[in-house]
Amino acid sequence: MINPLIKAIDEILPQTQCTKCGYDNCLSYANAIVNDKESINRCPPGGDHTIKKISKILNKEFIALDSSRGSPEIFNVASIDEEKCIGCTICIAECPTDAILGANKRMHIIITDYCTGCGLCVDKCPVSCINLENINRKWTKKHADLSRSRYNNKLIRMKKNFQQQSLMKNKLLKD
Questions:
Q1: For residue 49, what are the domain limits?
Q2: What CATH number does residue 18 fall under?
Q3: What would the pLDDT profile of 86-139 be if each residue is shown by its tens digit?
Q4: Where exactly are the transmembrane stretches of this chain (predicted)?
């Protein structure tokens, strides 16, 4: 059972899973705020709006966004330059919400509605074919809920794949 305070803070965070706060995901950051007394001002996508909400829940004084984490951002969307994409699949593995589709050695595409604009794919692309574009999207609770759900589903799938691979490996070792 998740601590209600952690759950409340996680609900406020934008769920971009961008890691700019220094944690692997939004829930880990919420947990660190509550249990490790982490600073409440480390979420650039959430900006001052999110910090104010967290400070109210925790009855703490508002502090401005830690600018070393980045600046408050417009919620961008990734796009892939088809001419440059080599189909390496690195971006697919990096995307926290499975917003990128493609196959090995084939051009990939971004599903705009699922993209959080986290930029993790941009940083990992070996041929610099991914860019973030401003589409004037206002990030809503609906976006955050969808992103959280897609992120959690990806974690479940990855865990299941790892377990299946471990079983197959054990079986091969026995044979």
A1: 4-69
A2: 1.10.15.40
A3: 999 999 999 999 999 999 988 899 999 999 999 999 999 999 999 999 988 889
A4: none
Annotated binding-site residues read 18, 21, 26, 43, 85, 88, 91, 95, 115, 118, 121, 125
Assessment of whether the complete model's pTM goes beyond 0.70: yes
Sequence-separated (6 or more) residues with CB below 8 Å from residue 174: none
Binding residues for [4Fe-4S] cluster: 18, 21, 26, 43, 85, 88, 91, 95, 115, 118, 121, 125
CA-to-CA distance for 52 and 165, rounded, in angstroms? 44
CA distance 90 to 130: 11
